[in-house]
Amino acid sequence: MSLPSAQQLRVVIVLPVPLSVEPDDDEVAEVERTRILRIALLEAGYNVVATLPGDRFLPDRLTQIQPDMVVVDAESQGRDILEHVVMATRDERRPIVMFSDDEDTSYVRKAIAAGVSAYVVAGTPAEHIKPVLDVAMARFEHEEKLRSELADARNQLEERKVIDRAKGLLMTRQGLSEQEAYARLRKAAMDKGIKLSEVAQRLIDAADLLG
Description:
The protein is an alpha/beta fold. The protein is 59% helix and 13% strand. It has a 5-stranded parallel beta sheet, sandwiched between helices.
């Protein structure tokens, strides 16, 4: 699968909640850092579609905007923002790149485990941002492929269990061999135009109902 180009990616920047009425030096510095990050993303060719506060409304805003990637810009409030972002992308997974100056390495591990595709130390040179985001996107797509393959394998296993149980019912109640039971299930599936596992499940459900 080829990765989308920077110009094709719709990026949302998530930052700390809005400034207080009288911002202190740290808050002013965060705004400037976010401005620099946004400029760096635009210069790298990314389509920055919105800059959003990391508050409880974030899930609804992301649902409306439907970005391809979420870039989190956070310092002291990084943990709170990440919680909102993870909740916002729980049902619709997206790559998350987090820029932070938090030196707590245990938190880095927790962030990656929570779904962050890349954790970047704040102050990364602008020319290094695009490679970081490219790697994050590649890693996300690789993990999604593995997740899909695992889900398929689990589904196939569950379907096999259902089919085996249905075959057992036919063998026990109608005195069929395993091959004959399978052939009957397969023919029913073909006649009805549905999956073999669905026929098997219907048989099981009927057997459970009749006792």
